[in-house]
UniProtKB/TrEMBL annotation:
The protein, known as: Helix-turn-helix domain-containing protein
Keywords: DNA-binding
Keyword NAD: no
PROSITE patterns given in the database record: HTH_CROC1
Keyword DNA-binding attached: yes
Domain of life of the source: Bacteria
CDD domains: HTH_XRE (cd00093)
Species this protein is from: Paenibacillus filicis
Alphabetical list of Pfam families matching this protein: Desulfoferrodox (PF01880), HTH_3 (PF01381)
Domain HTH cro/C1-type: residue ranges: 13-67
Lineage, highest ranks first: Bacteria, Bacillati, Bacillota, Bacilli, Bacillales
SMART domains: HTH_XRE
Length: 206
């Protein structure tokens, strides 16, 4: 493997193996190779063969690219700022996930990019009414199998409430009032839309 530092790769394999409380023999048995091969990798005397990288990646729980770099390169520690919250949606299977900062996320073989929230418009208008201690949210939007609101999320300064919606049901729901924050609604065709909720009220803000 050209341009691969086997010593860095070996140190990473060693640290990940120890993290998982595995001996060299344990790892070798799972991969159906000898423990001498694992020892050779960890001492930087050689790198895993390309044919073994996928299995090694699955066992250690690390992307193949990170193994070849020999460095996990962790993100800066998150300080709990919900303003950094990102939403991701897979165009293949429709799976949805979130992250509190920069993160490499993939699904169905695709690398997912964070959804970019747009201010609501006439076709994606989010209406919010205060009912007792709740926000009653309605979205006048088609809910067919091909075109629908996939989820609605309510984000305040310290928490997230998430509701998954499905075709052929009404796009309406209730959230407890969290004293301000942002509502997000994801249309499977047109992306992510947002609506700001002012503190102490649920009137529409343009």
């Amino acid at each position: 493997m050209d341009h691969v530092d086997c010593h860095k790769v070996g140190r990473l394999i060693h640290s990940l193996r120890i993290e998982k409380n595995m001996t060299q023999r344990n790892l070798a048995d799972l991969m159906h190779i000898s423990d001498k091969t694992i020892s050779k990798w960890e001492r930087g005397l050689g790198c895993p063969d390309v044919s073994l990288l996928s299995e090694l990646s699955n066992i250690l729980g690390v992307n193949i690219e990170k193994i070849l770099l020999g460095d996990l390169d962790p993100n800066e520690q998150d300080k709990g700022n919900m303003k950094k919250l990102n939403f991701y949606a897979c165009p293949g299977c429709g799976n949805v996930t979130t992250s509190m900062g920069a993160m490499g996320i993939s699904c169905c073989g695709r690398i997912l990019e964070p959804l970019l929230a747009q201010p609501e418009n006439d076709e994606h208008e989010i209406t919010v009414h205060a009912i007792e201690d709740d926000h009653f949210v309605t979205i006048q939007h088609e809910m067919s199998r091909d075109h629908y609101i996939s989820f609605v999320a309510y984000v305040s300064y310290d928490r997230l409430m998430f509701v998954k919606l499905y075709p052929e049901q009404a796009a309406e729901l209730r959230f407890p009032n969290m004293q301000g924050g942002t509502l997000y609604a994801y249309c499977n065709r047109h992306g992510l839309w947002k609506h700001e909720i002012i503190k102490h009220g649920a009137r529409r803000v343009s």
